[in-house]
Amino acid sequence: MDSFTRRGFVGLCAGIAAFIGFGGAAEAADAASEEHLLRPPGAQDATLLAALCVKCDRCRSICHSGVIGVGTMSDSVLAAHTPVMLFHRGSCDFCGECRTVCPTGAIGSFDPASDKVGIAIVQKDRCVAYFGGCTECHAACQYDAISLDDGDRPVVNADNCNGCGVCENICPALVYRNFEGGTRRGIVVVDEATYERIGATSVKDESEMTA
């Protein structure tokens, strides 16, 4: 009986160690995945958000433009039910209401003149301007972040772009180009880490952003 007890105890300890190791690996994978999620203005500090967000859903509920959604399990376990920006649903006018209703301080202050939710990237394989003519994003940008080149195609100024998402929200690519399914537009907002990796505000297609 003593021998069985010892073997059982050793097996239990090994199981606990394996579980902890798996949990640590999963947490690390979650953290890497969450780096690329777009968060509401003032919630760009991933560590602070993870520590303080209680997933109360108040920020999503009060958002008058509908741009705030929630992360899913496919984003990561830790990201599920935390606030994310969904620019195919709306855009952000930096009203600050999400910060006001946040009960824990997970969403902090944000200055649209100097802070960024993300940076817009033109996807040439989707952008209507590369196939026939469209200047919707240029006309809609309030921050002089989008100009037009000699062919009337959008060029993003990363310094001026704060990731408000108006350009992505207004982009008519899904209608004019008649793509089936999905939410990908001709111009999309990406997190700053993705922008830094790409090193440009235009890409040939989505693979350059996910590589």
Structural class assignment = alpha+beta
Give me the number of helical elements: 9
Number of DSSP-assigned strands: 7
**Largest sheet, order of strands side by side?**
6-3-7
Highest-level CATH class of the largest domain? Alpha Beta
CATH topology of the largest domain: Alpha-Beta Plaits
Mean pLDDT: 85
Low-confidence stretches: 8-33
User: Which CATH architecture of the largest domain would you pick?
Assistant: 2-Layer Sandwich
Order of helices and strands: HHHEEHEHEEHHEHEH
The biggest sheet, with number of strands, parallel, antiparallel or mixed sense and barrel status, is: 3 strands, mixed
Shape: globular
Proportion in helices: 25-40%
Kindly report how far apart the N and C termini lie.
56 Å
Our count of domains comes out at: 2
Radius of gyration: 21 Å
Strand content: 5-15%
